[in-house]
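tool=predict chain=A
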Amino acid sequence: MSSSDSHKAWLLAAVCLAALGMPLSFTGPAVVLPAIRDTLGGTPVQLNWVTNAFMLSFGATLMAAGALADAYGRKRVFLLGLAVVALSSALLTLAPGIVAFDLARAVQGLGSAAAFAAGTAALAQLFDGPARLRAFSLIGTSFGVGLSCGSILSGWLADTIGWHAVMLSPGAVSLVALCLAAPRMRESRNPQAMGLDVPGTLSFTAALSLLTLGVLQAPDSGWGSPWVLAALAGALATGAAFIAIERRVAHPMLDLSLFRFPRFVGVQLLAAAPAYGFVVLLVLLPIRFIGLEGRSALEAGGFMFALSGPILVVPTLAAWLAHRFSAGVISAVGLLVCAAGLMWLARCAPGTSLHGLVGPLLLIGAGIGLPWGLMDGLAVSVVPRERAGMASGIFNTVRVAGEGIALALVGAGLTALVALQLRVSSSPSSVAVSQAAQRVATGDLAQALALLPGMDRAGLLHAYGAAFGTLLCVLAGVTVLTAVVVFAFLRGDASARGHAEALGQNA
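tool=predict ok
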């Protein structure tokens, strides 16, 4: 292997490790959320920010981090991002309370965004054509491995060492990536880079932050609360301002003209689809299994592996199918299979054994795995080559920001559905019902029962099961609708075939 090829291989390994650590930062806290709550306390809203603080800071700054990497050096930003992830992981274990913990999670998201954006930007400069598709597909596979193994690894660490070890695991992976990249990665930058689009970055971050804040606060304050309405109105205003800014600046953070490509729009819709059909379950199901059903973290991790395990193998099947079918067909079929799994899971009451859950969990994971294997490659192949970097940044921003918004919306929806079920089956005050529903949604069964003295554990679990089933039916409907739209945009796309051929050359 030549020196140049060795350099590329080491950099690809480092970026793949960084991509592997990101889902660990996402799935781990969901598995140990009850333990974090018992140690640090916190209201339901503060506990929701354990996940959303990371997703929000990651999604809101991903494109800005890419611009900084182009202007000031991709190696510099990549290594800095990895160092921030490692440092924030250590700070999480030292947090004196839940607010400090949430702030450290936001810092961890910033570091992850910097590492991911700079790493992928560096790879985009080193690899071209089929090699670029193979490199980005390996990144997607690494992310999938992190999702697949993250829950069971976190469960094992939590049961054998404690929740602090779970928080340290992304930092450990980042340190390994840093050690690989620091002596071997060459500095690169874009000489024509114009620096950071500050107005665009601020307006985009403000829009996402206000939207997330409003949705998370709604179950506690009510959708008609002046604070919630002000946050949502602010999100709408800053979102409109962001679009206006990006249309006028010479070097925008988000090139809106890319949305003139129908296939590009289809890929963005595809990027958002796993958020509400799959990713939200990575947070909701551990809370259900551990906080409400009383299972161990390791047992819950085993359940979650049934959901995420197919991500390890199904993308390979998708690449094989892409020799024969378009991306639209493969993706639409996968989303329909996922929707069928969601409907099946909706019929599984709390306490269902692994034997009863493995079927729907595998079906959901397998369905998402079909488009998962194509998305990263499609993101850079459906636009002209010179705009591949921007297209990749937009794709990953849509994916991560969509996950954060989906988590906030689905969490608020579950709380509202639980409250509706509790009102039907009990007669306490509306305030008590609302507070109990929030506690149930975050897995705090003991506090929920204390707020509803006339209800027993079985009744509370029944109300939760009915609400959860309704929520899954809604998510299945949205997934079916997305399948139809994605098929319409990508049915004639030949890039999936080219993507498969690139993967085949790598085999």
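The mean pLDDT is 83. The CA atoms of residues 73 and 188 lie 5 Å apart.
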